[in-house]
Design a protein that fits this description.
A hairpin with a 4-residue loop joins strand 3 and strand 4. Helix 2 (17-29) packs across helix 3. The protein is built from 15 helices and 11 strands. By secondary structure, the protein is of the alpha/beta class. A 5-stranded parallel β-sheet has the order 2-5-8-1-9. It has a two-stranded antiparallel sheet with strand order 3-4. Strands 6-7 form a two-stranded antiparallel sheet. 36% of the residues are buried. It folds into 2 domains: 2-196, 3-Layer(aba) Sandwich (Rossmann fold); 226-325, Helicase, Ruva Protein, domain 3.
Length: 329
């Protein structure tokens, strides 16, 4: 097996060479936010979608736009509003009087990168139209079904401040997002750099460093990354501890969890760990890779009880406790 790992390692080293280039290009425009950039790459490599939560003005839109530019992919920003209709998202049939036929007019969903801005501002019908695109990688207009181009990544944002006039995402839909990322304010030095960049004349020009084909090739290579059975068991233990904490000696959190993570969490933890190993240019997964993505994969999949809310305990506190308790292989 040793020889195999060595071969895989060499292959991953070669295939992941673009990662540093990509991060370097993005950092020309995005100051700091290394965590967000890495998580965007994990979502992209693992073919998953991302839910972003953060106050306005933290460069969420700019980050996705910059990533799309660096990859030479098509980017669309859709502002979700209460009056948005599914047809505004996926497209519609338009009657052509000249030919006396209906023609398909494709909507903004037909792109590689979709920024669904303030997704919780639109009604359930629009959210469900986006869901088909996310899950099935296809869109139905009238009687025709269209395949979406690969890579296809939905980045949805939620504003945690205003909750009036919003339509909270149903749990089943939240579960469709591979990662939920929380973004915080930049540091003082980073904000100084942001200020200088935006009031000065310095114009950081970005280069396209990767093609969509390279991303698809990287995904195929990522699947070959070696994951030991001990790591697989470790992932299972983490997920099962959210469902049956007592079995893992976590009696103190039993009353705080209303329900645990679904099997999607197990799949996404494994994929996320592989993608993280790929970004770190390794051909095998170590426990640290699993721990690095655990919070992002699980924070929206572990529901807390009213008791936990009263005690101001969040799903993140619970996940952290689980990670501290479960033995690392």
């Amino acid at each position: 097996m040793q020889y195999d790992i060595k071969t895989i390692n060499e292959k991953i080293q070669k295939e992941s060479a673009f990662v540093d280039l990509l991060i370097m290009e993005i950092s020309k425009v995005i100051v700091g936010q290394k965590y967000m950039t890495e998580r965007l790459l994990i979502g992209l490599l693992a073919n998953g979608h991302i839910l972003l939560e953060g106050v306005p003005g933290l460069a969420k839109t700019l980050a996705v736009k910059t990533l799309a530019q660096a990859i030479q992919a098509k980017f669309q920003r859709i502002q979700f509003t209460p009056d948005l209709l599914p047809a505004d998202l996926v497209g519609t049939l338009i009657y052509n009087q000249k030919d006396s036929k209906f023609q398909t007019k494709k909507g903004p969903i037909f792109a590689n990168f979709i920024l669904a801005d303030e997704i919780n501002r639109s009604p359930a019908k629009v959210q469900s139209a986006l869901l088909e695109a996310m899950q099935e990688r296809q869109v139905t207009i009238g009687e025709e079904t269209f395949k979406l181009d690969e890579p296809f990544l939905v980045l949805a944002t939620q504003n945690p401040i205003e909750q009036e006039g919003t339509y909270p995402l149903p749990e089943a839909q939240v579960d469709r997002f591979m990662l939920k990322i929380k973004i915080d304010y930049p540091s003082k030095d980073e904000e100084l750099q942001i200020m200088r960049q935006n009031i000065g004349t310095q114009n950081n020009t970005m280069k396209t460093v990767v093609s969509p084909k390279d991303i698809l090739r990287a995904r195929a290579a990522m699947n070959e990354i070696y994951m030991d059975e001990k790591i697989e068991r470790y992932i299972l233990d983490i997920v099962f501890a959210t469902r049956a904490p007592k079995d893992y000696g976590l009696d103190n959190v039993t009353q705080l969890i209303s329900y645990g993570a679904s099997p999607r969490a197990t799949i996404n933890l494994a994929l996320g760990a592989k993608a993280y190993a790929f970004i770190k240019r390794r051909g095998y997964v170590i426990p640290e890779d699993v721990r690095a993505v655990s919070l992002d994969v699980l924070r929206h999949r572990v529901a807390v009880t009213y008791e936990a809310e009263a005690e101001e305990v969040t799903s993140e506190n619970i996940i952290q406790e689980i990670l501290n308790k479960i033995e690392v292989p």
